[in-house]
Amino acid sequence: MAQMTMIQAITDALRIELERDENVLVFGEDVGKNGGVFRATDGLQKQFGEHRVFDTPLAESAIGGLAIGLALQGFRPVPEIQFFGFLFEVMDSIAGQMSRMRYRTGNTEQAPITIRSPFGGGVQTPEMHADSLEGLMAQTPGVKVVIPSTPYDAKGLLISAIRDNDPVIFLEHMKLYRSFRQEVPEGEYTIELGKADVKREGKDVTIIAYGAMVHSSLKAAEELEKQNISAEVIDLRTVSPLDVETIINSVKKTNRAVVVQEAQRQAGVAANVVAEIQERAILHLEAPVLRVTAPDTVYPFAAVENEWLPDAKDIVAKVLEVIHF
Amino acid sequence: MANKRHVALGLTDDDVLEMYRTMVLARKIDERMWLLNRAGKMPFVISCQGQEAAQVGAAFALDRNVDYVAPYYRDVGVVLAFGMKAEELIASGFGKAMDPNSGGRQMPGHFGQKKNRIITGSSPVATQVPHAVGFALAAKLEGKQFVTFTSLGDGSTNQGDFHEALNFAGVHKLPVITFVENNRLAISVPYDKQVASENIAIRAKAYGMKGYKVDGQDPLAVYEVVKLARERAINGEGPTLIEAETIRLTSHSSDDNQSVYRSEEELEEIKKNDPIILFGNYLKEVGLLDEEKIKAIDDEINRQVNEATEIAEKAPYPKPETLYDYVYEQ
Ligand SMILES: Cc1ncc(C[n+]2csc(CCOP(=O)(O)OP(=O)(O)O)c2C)c(N)n1
After folding, report:
1. CB B121 within 8 A of CB B110
2. pLDDT in tens, B166-178
3. So what's the ipTM on this one?
4. What is the DSSP letter of B82?
5. B99 to chain A nearest CA, in Å?
6. What is the set of domains in chain B, with CATH numbers?
7. Which residue of A has its CA nearest to B320?
8. Band of the pLDDT at B235, cuts 50, 70, 90?
9. How far, in Å, is the centroid of ligand 1 from the Cα of A95?
């Protein structure tokens, strides 16, 4: 076991998969000598050579498109999109092409591609570097959308994503890259995609979150504990497809739920979770299921981003609303 | 006395001194922003350093009363020449409400100022190029006499937007100048991993337009070719692609560390091509500057940057309640 940050755990997962399977290729802007703008691919080109880990021209549509070509030839491409705000440049490759590959070819082709990309706010990078765009991806059948919240999860989920035979969008919250360390086992292990994780057990209310909001939710749960409210915190880990079973089992136990997302409110993952709960467990609910989200504005200026982003205080307040309903 | 190249180009002594001052101002604003960044006061800086001659030479060749510019994040020299003020640039680095680009809503270096005809742009590289072509099409449709200038880095020419925009401009013979500031790096990735053609200017041929390669460390050479491109554009002779060969003196941005991918020797070597020193030398040769005058300009601009910093530091941040404004028309 070693103490690792999330970024180290990600590098470790990439190294393990590059070693294990020669079809794994890592490429993107600045991933070679520079080791990625966040150092996620640090040392990998040196270890595995330029034919396995390489810099691409500054052209995301080509990165996505050539990943598809490589995948159809039997490779397992793991491209990096430098910031997820540049999703739009690679959108057709994802939503128009790779997501439909299995379906449109009647299962004769598949696109085992893992697109890694940093995203998320709270690190003073406004304007398309901080957006949470997982909702757009979650509306795209055919891709899986994975968002780890801890170093341990990041490693196991990334290994699973690379081995998965369908395209996976693997989103890495920038604020979590180096914010804390955790014991991470050496060598390979996998965490099943599409499975949520109960990060804290509780009996009075279920808080459902993912990404950086898992940590805000855990902090909120500690606060609530002081008020004798026992909150269960579920980390979705995969936002599409959703692990409805884990969510519903928890809600049936606690009878109350709050769903948290960092993204803006409209048409988001949280709304989807709320809908699933209403459809499947309405008779178990003692209160409406409420959401904590960012407001429906464009990601704001740095000076107010912490005000704009949901935080533990907002979560505590929402939980109290459903408790005292 | 040495050959006064600028006179042959139709530039007065005052013009070239103004160009020099603009280059120095761009440099000193940039240096100040790095200091503020390293002091923890400014979250992010992206630099013009090394590219000032290309930027100022190009901007001075345009008609700064009617033309539009769609610059990219390094173009401090272009936006200064088009009327943005030192304090406005520094305020944008702080994300203050007085930032003319966006009221603190965008990253620093994402320029836009309607009154000075600086076309608003954003983070994804090369997106400004089709916008500029749109401006040029508007000029053609309405018979207006202005030229649109857009710039970008060499790596950014590999985006689909670049190709789509230049192809359109070529097809419709639009009055647009695309100016590539080729510093031979895109963050860490060198030119030969970005572009297979021997230079970028020759790509022009495929778009049915003129292409020129020019020494981007010489503002007069840049001035000359941009001036020519502007004349052609105004005369309905269509678009031009210009590649200015230049250097990046700093890391890509304050979040980058170029020592990971650039050698000490390379960094020493490029300093010899510092455009401010080179242009200063020319102005000395033609008798317009001497050490004393250079020092006087430096002192004057240091004062200006100090004052600008003070104004920007004192200026208020945007009010939190304005967070909700301008998502839709109100
Ligand atoms: C579409 C898109 N992809 C990636 C980025 C991240 N990025 C910002 S600048 C840059 C390098 C640009 O290089 P170049 O065009 O050569 O200009 P230079 O910075 O060297 O002046 C990259 C990759 C971006 N802003 N937009």
Report:
1. yes
2. 999 999 999 999 9
3. 0.94
4. T
5. 11
6. 5-253+261-313 (3.40.50.970)
7. A304
8. very high
9. 23
